[in-house]
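Run log, item B.
One chain of 766 residues. Sequence copied directly from the ordering sheet:
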Amino acid sequence: MKNLNILQLSVAAIVLLCVGTSCSTTSRVPDDDKLFTGLSKIEYVNYEKNDHFLSTQEEVEAALATAPNGSFFGSSYYRTIPYRLWIYNAFAGSESVLGRWITKSFGKAPVLLSGVNPTLRAKVAQGLLRDRGYFGASVSFEEQTGRNPKKAKIGYVVNAGQLHTIDTLTYNGFPVEATALIDSTVSQSLVKPCDPFDVSSLDAERSRISTLFRNNGYYYYQPSYASYLADTLSENGKANMRLQLADNVPGRAMHKWYLGDITLKMRRQYTDSLSNVFKYRFFSMYYDGKRPPMRARVLMKNIKMRHGQQFNYDSYVQSLNKLTEMGVFRMVDVKFTPRDTTERCDTLDLMIDCIFDKPYDFYVETNMTGKTTGRVGPGIVVGVTKRNAFRGGEKLDINLKGSYEWQTGHRADGSSSKFNSYEYGADVSVEFPRVLAPFWQHRRWHVTPTTLLKASSNVLNRSSYFKRHVVSGELTYTFQPTATRRHQFSPLVLQYEYMKDQSQEFKDILQANPYLLYTMQDRFVPQMRYSFTYMSPSSYRNPIYWQTTVSEASNILSLGYMVAGKKWDAKDKKLFKNPFAQYVKLETDFRKTWQVGDHSQLVAHLNGGVIWAYGNSTYAPYSEQFYVGGANSIRAFNVRSIGPGAYFTDKAKISFMDQTGDIKLLANLEYRPRLFGNLYGAVFLDAGNIWALKDDGVRENSQFKIKNVLKQTALGTGIGIRYDLDFFVLRLDWGIGLHVPYKNGLYNMSGFGNSQSIHFAIGYPF
């Protein structure tokens, strides 16, 4: 906090100094130039408004867009106070180290009219219009000078003119067999009669033809071997198109090729001599050592090309992707070589050169959370990953984790609340790059499916209260049929929770609180879980991410007990001497990102969930219930310090125990501007809470009621900084509480000093 205040005061002092010494924004504008102050609204004339024009308009405006100094969220039209220009004007040319550092870190040179170059931008926009079918388009501009002759805006006028459309498209000059391939796929053509004339669509069709040929043996064929001829004079506004094969196409490009021998070179280092070889018919693997570093069967399963097959481009791409996705190679190089140089040769020998990545990865993850009047504490995860653990591309991961938390604040009644606790555990997992099951073995996937086997053990110690153990194991399959959709299915997740030690004080608390007594008892949790994830294509400028998870516990087990004569609603049925949990849980997570300028983002995040316990359970297990607060939730509050509903306890020592719920609603909005270099800022607004599905008779005002949702929603805001190291992000957030659910009024915090929370973590919060 102190460091943040010093930084804020320093920046403020610099800005005030700039204002006092150089209020003029044009002091460093050359005499023969002007300061660009933004665009006037672009004027469009002579156009027909339709979907094609609207998409073209977006591209035109992107070509003409230029952000002036002080741009509002990267806008070309609206400006705020250009304080970075003031700083530049005040310190540019300084010979002192401090002056140069201030100029580089906080200043920004004036955006000059000559640098905007409206003449060139108008030509680019005009060319873009013609590429989209507006052959008669023109783009003009004028400089608009106001009272200050050293400042100017730019006003563009776009005359679109008539849109030309496709009349016919024919394919000429191709050999008979190639022409037959084109005719057989004419329904898949990306250019159809009456479509707008669009260069990008025409290029896409030419690439489709190239891929079609290469998927049918024409290895050497390239899109550039054919070009378009257009007749736009025969009919007004129409274009008769012809895709013509060039005259100088190499002979080997227009005959089919077949695969010959397949050779793999397995290197740990690029200089390995590869003194040993494993051969099987037309397959050879060269390697160093006593045995192959990877089983040949595993490799050939991922290589979708075989001896004697006709060359297929899709199989080549899929093979390269599969080998890369195994995660054991740092380089995969695929080469096809003609067996000889004669004109009759139609055989390509395949050589795949693979260089293994380093076999071990060692990692350390840390985080730190704190509150000016609450708990603070560090957490750490230390682990090691072994690649290709069993010579089949497996990934073995072992990690140890721990965290410590202490509280130095005060209770609601003002008394001291010294408190500490710690948590530690270990995870062991093996990830197989294949399906360890009899189903879906031969289906093609966008990404290699994986099977995860994992076992973990965790111990949670709450000082002077209890020590709780959680032992778990899981089997999980992950499938990704497309680049945008992923499925994760866990047919078996076993979790065993039990108390090791309890203090007398904690036992007294449990006896006084039936809800805690039930949710924190020893319990066996056999689960089944399914998760679906959708991710926008990587080319989207404003992508979305959506994940929904459904899980259930013990329903199949309860059916078995019913067959054995036990009633479905009978409570406390046991397995392995402990009651088993029975519930259904649904959770969904949605994120939308808007790209604001070249280096800034606006991100919205929604998260919600519900868990319903029934049958053998009155309440869901404590570990499966929802909570809010913390570094990735409502950052103005600590973990488990809000809710459920308007419930509040003045027993600060135990508040973390019962502030969980069956329903969760969370919303976040965060603006992430780039400050300078790899340092980014953040301004955020967080809102949310948890609720109980039913009244437990202990936690007053905790039950979910629609009419109370808004007034029982906790609200917090804050700022933060992120340092992007490419491979991970360091994050510091300062949250400020605005509204707590258990008090009346919009801003109802007891005081500014008691409503702050600081979180240090790795990675973005969502």
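Observations after the first pass:
- The radius of gyration is 33 Å.
- The CA atoms of residues 470 and 497 lie 4 Å apart.
Flagged for discussion on Thursday.
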